[in-house]
Every structure is written in C-alpha cells, then in structure tokens.
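Below is a filled-in request sheet from our internal design queue. Each sheet records the structural input a requester submitted and the sequence that came back. We keep these sheets so that new team members can see what a complete request looks like end to end.

REQUESTER: design group, bay 2
PRIORITY: normal
MODE: inverse folding
CHAIN LENGTH: 740
BACKBONE (tokenized):
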C-alpha cells in the first residue's frame, strides 16, 4: 500500500500532473453532464471551448488568473460573434479574420499572458467555423438555434476558466515549486556537462563539449526565467518576502549563484590538462562537480515532492579530498604551477561554496536578510506602457509585425483554398496553418514535419479504434483520454500531441455523422495547411536566422560589455549582489541562450543561408568561454584595496570595452572590423600576468581573467569576420526587453 501511495504522490507531484488533471476534470464533468442529460451532440463544441480556454491559460496568482479569464472570455465572445455574423459574407469574413489575426499576434508584445490569449482567441475562432461547418449541437436549424454552437463554445471556455481560478486559489504556490524543481534539475544537468570539461584526456573535442554545455546553459536560462516569472506573479517585484515566499526567493537566488559559479572558467581547460596530466586533481574536480550535479537534481526532486533534502556524506568527502589534493600540489612548490594552482584553488573555492550552500539547505532554512530581493519585471503595467509597446511593433523591422502579417496572409490564403477545394470540411486547413506557422522558418519546418507525422499516426489509430470499439460511450471515453494526452505532451512532444488531438477530434465528430468520411479530408487539410504555413514562412518577410545572425551576435557582445562594467565596478568598491548586477548577468546569459536558439533554427534553413553556420557555432563556443571568464570574476567579486597596478587593470578594462564595443558596432552594421582591433592585446595580457608571488589572490584573479579575455579577442574577431562575410544583410531589428 505504501508503494502505491508513493507512486501516486510522485505522479501528483509531476510538473504536468496539475495541468493534465485540471483539463481532465473539465472535460470529464462536461461529458458526464451531457451523458446524463442525453445531449451527447453538444460534447464536441463544449470540448473545443475548453481546449481554447486551456490554450489561453498562463501561470498567475488567483487575481491575475481572474483578470486573464475575463479578458479571454471577452475576446472569445467578440471572436465567436464575429464569426457567426460575418460567416455568410466571405469577402468581409476573410478580411476581418486577417485583420483580427494580425492585431492579436501583436498582443504578444505585451507579454506571455496576452500572447496566450491571442492564441486561444484565434483557435476558438477557427473552432467556431468548424462548429458551424459540422452543424454542432444542431446549430443550423433556425436563427435562434444558430447561436447555440457559439454559446456552447463560450460555456465550455467559461467552465474551464472558473475551474482554473478555483485551482489557482487552492494550489497557489504549486507552480513556483514546479518551476524551482525544474530549475534545479536543469542546473544539475549543467553541472554534469561542466564536469566533462575537467576530464584530463588529450585530443578530446573540447568545442563539441562546450557547444553541448552552451545548449544546456540555454535551458538553464529558460528555467531561471520561468522561475522568476512564477515568483513575480505571486510575490511582486520588491519588498521583504514572508516566511513561505522567503524560502522560494532563497532557492531562486541560490540557483543563480550556483549557475554563476558553475559557469566560471578560471583557466583554459587544455592548459590545465597539460600541466596536471599526471595528477588526480582534475579527476577530483570532475567527480565533485558530477556529485554536485546529482545533488542539485535531488534537491529539485525534494522541492517537487515536498520531502526533506538529504545532501549525504559522499559530496562532503569529495570536497575534502579535492582540498587535500590542492594542498599536496601547493606543497610541491613547482614554479611552473604557481599561476595554475591559484586558478585551481579559486575553482575549489567555488565548489566548496556550492557544497556549503547545499549542506545548509539540507540542515536548515536560512533567511534572506542582507539580500536585495527585488526582481526586474519587464511586463507593462499601465495602459500608456502597453500602448507604447504596441505602437513600437508597427514596423516591418519588428519580428512580431512580420509574424502577424505572415499569419494573416496565410489564414486568408487558407480560407481561399478551402473555398475552392472542399468548403464543407476544409476548416482544418486554417487550424493547421495557425498552429504550424511559427515566427522562424526553422521552427515552422520542424513543426510541419511533426504535424504531418502526428496526423498520420492519429488517423491510423482512429481508424483502428472506430473499427474495434464502435460503441459511442467507449469512443467518448477514449476521446477524453486522448485530450488529456494532448495537453500533457503539447509543449515538448508535439508529434504525439498532434496524434492525440486527431484521435479526440475525429472520435468526437463521429457523434455528428460517419467519422470514417473525415479521415482522408483531415489528412488532405493537414498537408495543405502545412504547405501554406511553410510557403508563408519562406516567402512573406522571412526571418532568416542566417541573415540576422550578426545582429544576435552583436546583442551578445553588447550584453558582455554591460556585464563587464558591472563586474569591474564591484571590484572598485561597490560590492553586494544588487539588482543592476543581476540584470546585467541575466542579460548576458539570455543573449547567449538566444544565440544558441538562433543557430538551432538556422540548421533547418536552406543551404545558401547557412554558409556562416560553422562560424556561428565557433562564436557561440567562444562567447560561452567569454561568459565563463566573466562569471569567474563575478563569482569572486569583492571590493579591492588600492593597488600600485590599478592603472594597468584600468587600461586592460578600457581596452576590452573599446574592442568589444567596436566589435558590436561592426556586427550591427555588418561592416568589417577595424584592422587594429586586437593589436597589442597579447603584450598587454603578458604584462597583466607578470605578477609578484605575494600578489593578493583577488588581485591575481582580476588580472588573470582580464588577460584571458584579452587573449580571446583575436578568436572572437575571426569568427565575427567570417559571419559578417556571409549572406546578404538584413535591416537591424529592435531587440525586445528581456526578463532578468
């Protein structure tokens, strides 16, 4: 019995269990009521209303969720009513649909809440067309009855909205725990990948390992942003947290600290491997990082399951062993190792700090006293801020403007095609187009393949189920399970989600007639919708990542400049962990993650646009290395006393800032970099590294890291030059505000 309870508690604690169970209850109650009242024909329409409302749902507190539900219902009512009134007038209908789609897409500029509402509204509009097309709920028999389908759609949406508000009230902090749990899980994977860099093996492909680490870093950054959003929506932007919220703030800031320390690079790993090839110190670093990665994953599980976190003795012993190994190397007094041992000791300090913080988490709940608990909230909160942000999108340079125009034209073309080919059951074309057409061609191409494959699988499964289980009641139960599967898998397993929603839709529409008749039209509509979406992404103001790569790289370099300025200001007397420092650090990580995502989309673009792909990946590996050098400075930041060589350090900082600024400007304008950009940086780096043996550890760290960054400049220049010489340039796109 205890094993069953344990499994049930683990299932309940799963990240998607709450979402899936909520949808299951909403659909199950509707099915039960309709079954009891003998109104089975109303089930498909009510289901579609629930699905649209669930698609529009975003994470928020109960008050924010109430506002979102009311706004969603208002948009749904206007959209469904417009479809009903304009449906008999094709030209007016398609023009209104295109204009509404364009405007709704631009709402994404206001934040995730409005983007989700826009998606739900577009979906419900198409569901309303499908409902009228199939005559759901006998809505076509009279003028009064013709509004029945619209009313059922809205009733389903309102029912799910009410359940969503109630759920948020009962389980207010559950999403915060889920986001923090996912954050520590991703952080654990990051630490394990970081540990691979310390493996003292020669002739290993370090660039491939760095790229894998950069991709995982993007997932950590995404998890950090999701956790921050969840905390903001419940506890606000500033003010002292309470007892419960203080725990969440502490875990979030601890994850940020772990991320910075784990991102740190104190010296090139190849040099460490060559110097300490015959020592066990790098293996001990690798083992300790791997154990700490496992501990972070266990902490994530403890947060999710609400169980005590047990740190264990293994990691403590590994930390002590690393300390003894470093002490043994220091006792050798090898002059060739002095600089490298100093870097290893700083690495050991980072790992010991992570070990100490993890052990404190296992022992007690420390407070947030002395921590700046403010978080940046980039969402607009007044009508003026919203209007300003929306007006800024009305330019072809805006990615949202392009995507909105692309979506509007694609849906208009889809409507024209369905009217010409098979107007009776062709509205699945519009639904496919709306869900497949993504902001970038690479994402659209990936979604297209998943959609067609999922539809084929779903059609095959549906045909088999209708043959094996002809009873209506059993088919409805299967449809309910398929809908649950769709919502559990729609964010990360889109092919499976498409198969599930295909099964649900066809089994529901089998209530209204012969479901077998819809199998081939559904496949044809899916193919047509995918072709239209792909054509729109390819032809209508395409956002080719290969032509925008220089702009994304420029954003990375500009973020690096701000991060460098913040770090150096802390060494010049500022100190602390204030909001401006955390914003600069998060912007740098966000920019690095955006570059990784852009390269991932670029891989799926046409070959002539990928001529600079290799240079882009090299720049990503270099930018990740640069981020590591800066993170090492940030992890050990503390005010330094005046020193005789401060002028040299200031000169190095100024030289770095100037070189990075010129690089960013050249990338933005797609102009060749100055020939003397990195002239003399090697000499300056050598001068920085020539230090007396009694130099203070923090002063040594500052000079060593600045020297490492200076030596990286020629490689950055080479990769930037190659990207600049790539495909034809595209006009710069204003970057949207990035959460930190």
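RETURNED SEQUENCE:
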């Amino acid at each position: 019995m205890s094993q069953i309870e344990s499994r049930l508690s683990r299932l309940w604690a799963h990240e998607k269990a709450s979402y899936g169970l909520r949808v299951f209850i909403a659909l199950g109650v509707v099915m039960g009521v309709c079954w009891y009242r003998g109104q089975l024909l109303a089930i498909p329409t009510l289901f579609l209303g629930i699905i649209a409302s669930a698609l529009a749902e975003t994470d928020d507190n109960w008050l924010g969720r109430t506002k979102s539900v009311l706004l969603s219902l208002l948009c749904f009512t206007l959209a469904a009513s417009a479809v009903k009134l304009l449906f008999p007038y094709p030209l007016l209908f398609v023009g209104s649909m295109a204009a509404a789609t364009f405007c709704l897409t631009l709402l994404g500029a206001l934040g995730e809440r409005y983007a989700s509402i826009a998606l739900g509204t577009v979906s419900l509009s198409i569901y309303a067309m499908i409902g009228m097309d199939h005559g759901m709920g006998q809505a076509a028999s009279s003028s009064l009855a013709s509004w029945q389908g619209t009313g059922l759609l809205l009733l389903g949406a309102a029912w799910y909205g009410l359940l969503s508000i109630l759920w948020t009230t009962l389980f207010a902090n559950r999403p915060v725990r889920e986001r923090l749990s996912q954050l520590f899980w991703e952080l654990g994977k990051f630490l394990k990948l970081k540990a691979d860099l310390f493996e003292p093996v020669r002739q290993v492909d370090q660039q491939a390992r760095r790229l894998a680490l950069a991709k995982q870093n993007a997932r950590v950054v995404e998890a950090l942003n999701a956790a921050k959003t969840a905390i903001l929506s419940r506890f606000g932007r500033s003010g002292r947290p309470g007892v419960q919220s203080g725990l969440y703030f502490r875990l979030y800031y601890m994850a940020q600290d772990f991320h910075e320390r784990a991102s740190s690079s104190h010296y090139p790993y190849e040099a460490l491997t060559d110097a300490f090839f015959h020592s066990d110190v790098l293996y001990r670093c690798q083992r300790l990082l791997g154990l700490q990665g496992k501990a972070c994953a266990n902490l994530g599980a403890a947060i999710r399951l609400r169980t005590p976190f047990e740190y264990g003795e293994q990691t403590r012993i590994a930390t002590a062993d690393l300390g003894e190994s470093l002490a043994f190397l220091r006792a050798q007094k090898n002059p060739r190792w002095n600089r490298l041992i100093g870097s290893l000791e700083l690495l050991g300090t980072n790992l010991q700090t992570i070990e100490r913080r993890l052990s404190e988490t296992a022992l007690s709940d420390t407070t947030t006293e002395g921590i700046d608990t403010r978080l940046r909230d980039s969402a607009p909160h007044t009508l003026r801020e919203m209007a300003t942000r929306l007006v800024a999108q009305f330019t072809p340079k805006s990615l949202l403007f392009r995507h909105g125009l692309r979506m509007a034209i694609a849906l208009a073309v889809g409507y024209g095609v369905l009217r010409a080919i098979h107007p009776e059951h062709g509205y699945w074309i519009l639904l496919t187009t709306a869900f497949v057409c993504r902001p970038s061609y690479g994402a659209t191409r990936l979604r297209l393949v998943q959609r067609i494959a999922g539809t084929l699988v779903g059609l095959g499964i549906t045909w088999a189920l209708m043959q094996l289980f002809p009873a209506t009641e059993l088919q409805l139960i299967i449809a309910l399970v398929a809908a649950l599967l769709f919502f559990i898998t729609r964010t990360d397993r889109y092919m499976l989600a498409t198969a599930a929603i295909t099964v649900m839709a066809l089994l529901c529409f089998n209530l209204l007639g012969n479901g077998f008749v819809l199998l081939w039209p559904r496949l044809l509509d899916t193919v047509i919708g995918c072709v239209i979406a792909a054509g729109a992404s390819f032809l209508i103001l395409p956002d080719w990542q290969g032509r925008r790569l220089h702009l994304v790289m420029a954003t990375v370099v500009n973020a690096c400049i701000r991060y460098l300025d913040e770090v150096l200001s802390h060494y010049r007397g500022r100190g602390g962990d204030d909001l401006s420092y955390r914003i600069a650090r998060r912007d740098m990580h966000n920019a690095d993650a955006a570059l990784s995502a852009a390269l991932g989309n670029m891989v799926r673009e046409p070959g002539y646009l990928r001529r600079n792909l290799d240079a882009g990946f090299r720049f990503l590996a270099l930018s990740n290395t640069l981020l590591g050098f800066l993170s090492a400075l940030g992890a050990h930041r503390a005010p330094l006393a005046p020193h005789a060589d401060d002028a040299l350090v200031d000169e190095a900082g100024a030289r770095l800032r100037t070189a990075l600024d010129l690089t960013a400007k050249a990338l933005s304008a797609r102009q060749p970099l100055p020939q003397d950009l990195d002239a003399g940086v090697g000499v300056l780096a050598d001068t920085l590294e020539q230090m007396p043996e009694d130099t203070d550890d923090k002063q040594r760290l500052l000079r060593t890291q600045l020297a490492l960054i200076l030596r990286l400049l020629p490689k950055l220049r080479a990769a930037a030059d190659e990207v600049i010489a790539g495909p034809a340039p595209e006009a710069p796109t204003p970057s949207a505000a990035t959460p930190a």
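SHEET NOTES:
- The CA atoms of residues 190 and 396 lie 38 Å apart.
- Residues 136-145, 731-740 have pLDDT under 50 and may be disordered.
FILED BY: M.R.
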